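This part of the workshop introduces the protein records we will be handling. A record pairs a protein's sequence with a compact description of its fold. Comparing a sequence with its tokens is the quickest way to learn the format. To make this concrete, we reproduce a full record directly below:
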Amino acid sequence: MSVIADFQVNGLNPSTVGGVGTAAKYFPRVLGSSIGNFSAAPSAASAAGQLSVAAFGELQGNAFRVKLAGDVLPFTGGGNVTIELVANTGTVAAPSYAAIASTGAVALASATAVNWFLEATVVGTNNSGATPGLLSGYFSGSLNNAVIALTAITNPPSGLDFVKGQAAVQGNVLGLVARVTFSVSLAQNFARLYQFQISAE
């Protein structure tokens, strides 16, 4: 497997979100996507900093993997936490999000940090049956040593162009972002993202 796109996070330089609020929190890109570009933080209203799936036929008809890993700590009060891999089929300025992989709502002990990961294997072509450009596949993972069973991706995006890509950003089939949702609003809540990569044979 070769890494073809990387969110540029690692064990020494994770992306971190947290604090008060029960709305989804999007992991920011800590470093710029290339030299001379500043870091960017996706949000519900903007996909700036998203991890892009390249067009130009590079991945058409090829199964590719998306891996995410990190840890999460819900502070006093415990509650549920949900981590999601989200596809953007809109533009950067006006994203259209759909969660394609999720840990589901998992109850965690108070003030105890736990590890998590999600791995999705997906494929698509411009001629995917009755719905051209359909992304399909499956995901699995774990959170707090609880296995996330092999599951077909939810809300599979359709109408994708693996050759020309989107109108904006040009050359991208779709964008990917990661987000976390805490059920209890506490300033001490946090989650970290150490790995977010797209790889292919």
Remarks:
- Residues 1 and 201 are 5 Å apart (CA to CA).
- The chain has one domain: 2-200.
- The radius of gyration is 16 Å.
- DSSP finds no helices and 13 strands in the chain.
